[in-house]
Amino acid sequence: MISSEEFWNKNSQKYIAKPIKDKNTYNKKLKITEDLLSSTDRILEVGCGSGETAIYHAKNVKHVLATDISAAMVQHGIEKSKQAGLRNIDFKQVAIEDLLEEAERFDAILALNVLHLVNDVEASLKIIYELLHDNGLFVSSTPLLLEVNPILKILISIMQKLNLAPPVSMLSNKGFISLLENVGFKIEMTWKSSKESMFIVAYKNGKKFAEF
Ligand SMILES: C[S@@+](CC[C@H](N)C(=O)[O-])C[C@H]1O[C@@H](n2cnc3c(N)ncnc32)[C@H](O)[C@@H]1O
Q1: Is residue 180 a contact partner of residue 202, using CB atoms and an 8 Å limit?
Q2: What does the pLDDT read at residue 209?
Q3: Hey, what's the torsion of the CAs at 39, 192, 53, 95, to 10 degrees?
Q4: Of 111, 133, 138, nearest to 36 (Cα)?
Q5: How far apart are alpha carbons 204 and 197 in whole angstroms?
Q6: Band of pLDDT at residue 211, cut at 50, 70 and 90
Q7: CA–CA dist 112, 53 (Å, integer)
Q8: How many angstroms separate the alpha carbon of residue 195 from the centre of ligand 1?
Q9: pTM value?
Q10: pLDDT tens digits along 76-116
Q11: Residues lining ligand 1, CB < 6 A?
Q12: Whose CA is closest to 4, among 116, 151, 122, 126?
């Protein structure tokens, strides 16, 4: 089977050119996230793809580190952020699995449409947890493919054999929430944003109380 890195490098132009399927849902996710961020936050996005979301949030926070396993995706993000004249965003080619080498810890981490693509979801969640400051915010949107149709599993494995699909993890709603809780996240909000996707707002060790 083709590796994730190879698959996403090969398919980056196609993915980037594809219009967002449901613009209203995408905008709602941006707005929910934006309302939870503050101007002093240093944030990390894993699996940032084209960089569109990272670039959007750069105006709301102090600094964004946008990361992706694919060099082609990262290159696209760098060009787009230059065009936008942004100075508070950096892009880096790195897989989630290798992120613990980052010395920095973050106020918020975003993982949008990527956690179903890692080999070991729990291990990746542990890395994300470790990379957050206490009370740090974790926003994820994850296709939970076991919720869709059992036949999908067979279809995906055929496509993988033909190098037409990347490696994926088959997750259920209940299973994914258990993984988050096992790792230690306190879930603040869940929203079934589409037939297959779950948008979740969670905190490391719970939400920080407002300071008076
Ligand atoms: C479906 S795209 C989502 C991109 C973007 N987050 C979005 O919502 O449009 C998945 C992205 O995750 C990246 N990716 C896949 N496996 C990864 C991994 N193990 N670590 C980091 N990025 C990964 C791919 O290169 C791709 O850019």
Answers
A1: yes
A2: 60
A3: 100
A4: 138
A5: 22
A6: very low
A7: 9
A8: 20
A9: 0.94
A10: 999 999 999 999 999 999 999 999 988 899 999 999 999 99
A11: 4, 8, 46-49, 68-70, 73, 95-97, 112-114, 117-118
A12: 116
